[in-house]
Design brief:
Distance between the termini of chain A: 41 Å
Order of helices and strands of chain B: EEEEEEEEEEE
Helix content of chain A: under 10%
Radius of gyration of chain B: 14 Å
Strand content of chain A: over 45%
Order of helices and strands of chain A: EEEEEEEEEEE
Oligomer: heterodimer
Largest sheet of chain B: 7 strands, mixed
Shape of chain A: globular
Largest interface: A-B, 22 and 25 residues
Largest sheet of chain A: 6 strands, mixed
Number of helices of chain B: 0
Distance between the termini of chain B: 36 Å
Radius of gyration of chain A: 13 Å
């Protein structure tokens, strides 16, 4: 089968840096995506890694190590509006090239 | 603006009474997905259409059906809703491109309540 593990909750201070880890298990692998979801809202795409290394998009960066089946999302200069759930999601041979299998999500709370 | 639209945003139905949720998109994407998301859980893929080709997930109950009459519209039919089907239903689209990230674009969701 396939599985994704993320911490269930993380709390961090406004202005700080936080890292949300994700380990995955899947048969075959295309890439790892990250989505943000505010309470009552729709998931929105943040980043995607198909190759090892760091991808940077503004305050958000995502890292992938395929050999370790591991990735993380790094949020810098945290703002109150970053309080949300963050899901890693994998594309693999089991899911099919077009589909995503989501992790259980990490609820980030940013405090003043 | 190009977008994914879901109607209604909130739907209340009675136990066993068929209900249809709708999704439309102006992105002209090939793939449309339906997800079920229960409180504090991950979105769970129910099925997807790649153009007209329907792909059902192995663990999607028979109670859930879908129709895609054209590129823009996709419907989720729940034939006999049970209390356990109360959830947020998310529609998403994507435009697969070789070597690309296959970003999925989500609609705002329909929150289904079953009485």
């Amino acid at each position: 089968g396939q599985s994704l593990e993320q911490p269930s909750e993380v709390t961090a201070v406004e202005g700080a840096i936080v890292q949300i880890n994700c380990t995955y298990q899947t048969s075959g692998f295309y890439g790892l995506s990250w989505y943000q979801q505010h309470d009552g809202g729709a998931p929105t795409f943040l980043s995607y890694n198909a190759l090892d290394g760091l991808e940077e998009t503004g305050r958000f960066s995502s890292f992938l190590s395929r050999s370790d089946s591991y990735g993380y999302l790094l949020l810098q200069e945290l703002q109150m509006k970053d309080s949300a759930s963050y899901f890693c999601a994998v594309r693999g041979f089991q899911t099919g090239a077009n589909n995503l299998f989501f992790g259980t999500g990490t609820r980030l709370t940013v405090i003043p | 603006d190009a977008m994914v639209i879901q109607n209604p945003r909130y739907q209340v139905t009675q136990f066993g009474k068929p209900v249809t949720l709708s999704c439309s998109q102006t992105l002209n994407h090939n793939v449309m997905y339906w997800y079920q998301q229960k409180s504090s859980q991950a979105p769970k893929l129910l099925f997807h259409y790649y153009d007209k080709d329907f792909n059902n997930e192995a663990d999607t109950p028979d109670n859930f059906q879908s129709r895609r009459p054209n590129t823009s519209f996709c419907f989720l039919d729940i034939r006999s809703p049970g209390l356990g089907d109360a959830a947020m239903y998310l529609c998403a689209t994507s435009l697969p491109k070789t070597g690309s990230d296959n970003e999925q674009f989500f609609g705002p969701g329909t929150r289904l309540t079953v009485l």
